[in-house]
Amino acid sequence: MDNFQFYSPTEFIFGKETENQAGEMVKKYGGTKVLIHYGSGSAVKSGLIDHVKASLEKSGIAYTELGGVQPNPRDTLIYKGIELCRKENVDFILSVGGGSCIDSSKAIALGVPYDGDFWDFYGTGKTVEKALPVGTVLTIAAAGSEGSGASVVTKEEGSFKRDVGSDLLRPRFSILNPELTCSLPAYQTACGATDIMAHIFERYFTNTQEVEVTDRLCEALLMTMIKETPRVIADPGNYEARANIMWAGTVAHNDIVGVGRSQDWNSHKIEHELSALYDCAHGAGLAVIMPSWMEFVYKHDIMRFAQMAVRVWGCEMNFVNPELTAIEGIQCFRNFLSCIGMPVNFEQLGAKEEDIPKLVDKLGLGDGKTGGFVELSSDDVTEIFRIAAHTAL
Predict the structure, then answer these.
(1) What are residue 115's phi and psi, to 5 degrees?
(2) How far apart (Å, rounded) are the C-alpha atoms in residues 38 and 329?
(3) Residue ranges, the chain, pLDDT below 70
């Protein structure tokens, strides 16, 4: 196990009707003028925004609002949010929505006190030195942004999708009411589940040895997702299954399962180009890319993939030829994704094989490589895209 420092200061308020505590939580963390940032009209139509406003009013917290966040959140709305916050002297951002809304909120939070263009931080490694505090009311279990310091947004000009990470962007609090996810369509639920599993796998496939504790934590979360996802798709109102998925999504990405071990993240980097170009759901893109990445890299550590197959998917270990077990585990993952309604190849996603050179070019590797479990060149990424284009169940 590698040396590590772990800091996860977010306060979680979990359970039914907890959105009614938004006002007291904002007040607890020093907010006096709030930007309520949300996505589509569903948060308004459901009455959730009204509940949040009533809670803020009860606590004597002033607010303004900005809706319209789209999946793969756009820089154009973020610029509007930064301008609005400065004009209204906002000192706290309250995100009401899913990962896209939270990521957009974090971008606004770091942009308000910064003299330059907020985009300067995305994909560059530039250190975030100041940010407004952020709180969340989560409406979909997926991105894990409610407990992480990460934000991923899209620059509309050129369709670039990039990320930034900083502990300053970790929400001060996150309100998690599984009831708020019960109205989600099955496809959106499955996309969220896929994203959660991908966050775990990005940490599970590591070159660090002797990490049994976090291996077992990863495996437990994956097995939870395998059990609970089909349950909520069959019975969308199953609160207990929704609760398990929501907490799994948070734990999967606040890095408790990633400490002390190297991580990968190449599947996410590669998928970002798909969702930036085609505006597909992030989870759907990951369903296509992650098994294809596995198929390309598994020989780097056959026994780790065989371990995944046995411990997570219940495959029998082939001690004579462990490679067959590794391959079986990858296929089990792909079959599971298909069974919950996810695409597993380019055709099902709506991607085009002729766009592969453009997708690879936008990744910006040139003659270099992107590090991780296996370092990947532009030619390697091209091959992963080709596997994804030609995958058949």
Answers:
(1) -75, -25
(2) 39
(3) none
